[in-house]
Amino acid sequence: MQEQNKNLILATALSFLVILVWFWLFPPEEITNPTEEVATAEQSGDVTIPTSETTAAAPDTAVVPTDAVTDAPRIKIETPQFEGTLSLQGSRIDQLSLSQYKETLAEGSPTVTFFKPVGEPEAHYSFFGWVAVDGIESVPDLNTVWSLEEGSVLTPDSAVTLSWDNQAGQIFRTTISVDENFMFSFDQSVENTAGTAVSVRPYGMIRRHGEPSDLKNFFILQEGPLQMTDGILEAYDYDDISSEQIATTSESWLGFTDHYWQSIIIPNQSAPFHSTLRYLEDRNIYQAEAMMPVETVAAGATATVTTQLFAGAKEWEAIRNYEREGVTRFLDSIDWGWFFFLTKPIFWLLHQLNLIIGNMGWAIIALTVVIKAAVLPLAWKSFVSMAKMKELQPEMEKLKEAAGEDKQKMQQGMMKLYKDNKVNPASGCLPILLQIPIFFSLYKVIFVTIELRHAPWFGWIKDLSAPDPSSIFNFYGLAPWGTPEPGSIMALLFIGILPLLLGISMWLQQKLNPAPTDPTQKMIFAWMPWVFMFMLGSFASGLVVYWIANNVITFTQQYTIMRMNGAKPDIFGNIKESFKRAEKAANDASEPKGKK
After folding, report:
1. How many helices (H) and strands (E) does the chain have?
2. How far is CA 590 from CA 10, 523, 550, 585, in A?
3. Do 483 and 476 contact (CB within 8 A), yes or no?
4. Residues in the chain with pLDDT values less than 50
5. What is the separation of C-alpha 473 from the centre of its chain, rounded to a whole number of angstroms?
6. Which of 114, 320, 532, 594 has the fewest CB atoms within 10 Å, i.e. is most exposed?
7. How far apart are alpha carbons 468 and 427 in whole angstroms?
8. Which residues pair with 126 in a beta bridge?
9. Is 287 exposed, middle or buried, given 0-12, 13-18 or 19+ CB atoms closer than 10 A?
10. Which pLDDT score is estimated for 369?
């Protein structure tokens, strides 16, 4: 038995070796001990947390603003992507619905609500303010009610300006603008009409009240706080933010990422600032803070600082454009995973094909064609070798009969047969090894990117990021009732049309390969298509579409190459023979014991 399973054990060992080498070459990024960073920053006297509405904090005092709820006036936000409001309390953006995205595919489904104000479950909002440093009595904070100085509705064509006078010689203004996509700009200024200079620090902040209820908690997906520090991305789970994560940094940004949405503060990329992630345990609040450098404003002068806020969908094209405009490594806010060197180009190609074709399902099939064409030179040699092995099948059976139970004699005979006919049996593994990283990368792309969310193909496939909704349970859509919940035992049993086609395509492709001489291996290969059919039944439809297309193209390539090299695979004969063996096995099982 050990000899029979030698190849399987060797393949497993090699797989683990590949994983170990990968982690050795590309180890996970080390995250500096946050306690040490906090201590270093505090010793420098350069850590400043926004003050409460009544307390003026020194630059090194950790005072967290309270969050009173008032009935402050609101300004409408209307863009092609957003519907929402801006509260004059704290100049906070705390009501945003993503107009282009629905919660579900059901008719009448509400739009996705991204930002929510204090008082609602899972409040999520952003606000901007100032910290007093020297020579100033009071500054606007989270609970300051600003006055509307200019503008009426925030749109891509019209900004709004808020103002607040501290009645001590300083007038604070915030001009808020928004583009056609998901980026807000906050121009914070302070005009000093007093007779002496003052020093203040502007800040931007994002808050989440508790963890989101729709967390996937899936290893393949990053959800939680993000912190780009000097061009190095640090991703956290919510549980990781038990203490403050502080860094003095530039070329950076920070915030929170969900499956398809994110809220990110983007300070000036060329100026250093304090980037802080913290958890306020007493109030169950997660907080991302960007504290900009101290601004010293001379008497009669005005200082202005611009900070951006991204709030919305993680659309590849929009995020790529922001990166091109200067936001450092902003595309990495999309979770490309370990195989980023594959997932990024695969998604780029898929995106381009979708722009040409106009349908993501057909784009996946076109992507499969491109990938199969690219690896065809490598696969050609493998298919030629399989053709020769298929022709040698009768001689292998003779060797097996002659060797009987002598496994060593059988192995020696096989090796001589391969050598005499110049056949390399290991070459058949090459297409499979190539498929593994490509399959995993495409799985990542389909699962993570928003472009696949609710993307239809045709007919009953309305969402390529979700499992096939058809099932024998509802007679494949003919009955009016639904199907079992994805991931349940019932869903595994009552699989859809696409998984069935996957199983059949794998079975047909297998008929072109030489059958293993070992009975155990033969049984494993015989069951493999149907095991995969049930395993992938709960996977995203887009991934199953890719696998079916891959099987069909591989079958066509292999059949053609085998015919070109003299082999004459009889697919229908193999199928008939399989049915005959199944019928004979059933008859033998039903025949009474002892009957000849």
Report:
1. 13, 20
2. 40, 21, 39, 9
3. no
4. 1-63, 596
5. 31
6. 594
7. 34
8. 93, 206
9. buried
10. 93
Which residue, among 222, 215, 212, 213, has the nearest Cα to 444 in the 3D structure? 222
DSSP symbols for 431-463: HHHHHHHHHHHHHHHHHH-GGGTT---STT---
Question: Per DSSP, what are the bridge partners of residue 257?
Answer: 224, 262
Q: Which two tokens stand for residue 156?
A: 């891509």
Residue 581 token pair: 């063996």
Sign of CA dihedral 69, 71, 72, 73: positive
Q: How many CB atoms neighbour CB 247 within 10 A? A: 24
Q: How is residue 535 written in tokens?
A: 């395993």
Beta partners for 206?
Answer: 126, 288
Question: Could you tell me the pTM of the whole model?
Answer: 0.78
**Tokens representing 333?**
């806010």
Which amino acid belongs to residue 423?
V
Q: How many whole angstroms from its chain centre is CA 475?
A: 33
Residue identified by tokens 């863009």 is 79
| 22 φ/ψ angles, rounded to the nearest 5 degrees | -60, -45
Per the DSSP assignment, residues forming a β-bridge with 262 are 257, 312
How is residue 11 written in tokens? 């393949």
Which of 424, 371, 425 is CA-nearest to residue 557? 371
260-281 pLDDT per residue, tens: 999 999 999 888 899 999 999 8
Q: Which two tokens stand for residue 470?
A: 């058809």
Return the amino acid letter for 522: K
Output phi, psi for 102, to 5 deg. Answer: -100, 155
User: What is the pLDDT at residue 427?
Assistant: 62
Residue 155 is classified by DSSP as: B
C-alpha 589/C-alpha 42 separation (Å) is 79
Amino acid letter, 300: G
* Tokens 């291996």, located at residue: 521
pLDDT in tens, 91-116: 999 999 999 999 998 888 999 999 99
- 3-state DSSP percent of the chain in helix, strand and coil, to 5: 40, 25, 35
Q: How far apart are CA 136 and CA 316, in angstroms?
A: 44
User: For 90, left (φ over 0), alpha (ψ -120 to 50), or beta?
Assistant: left
Tell whether the torsion through CA atoms of 213, 214, 218 and 221 is positive or negative: negative
Listed in sequence order, the residues at least 6 apart from 463 whose beta carbon sits closer than 8 Å to its beta carbon are: 105, 453, 454, 455, 456, 541
Type of residue at 255: G
- Here the tokens at position 546 are 């890719």
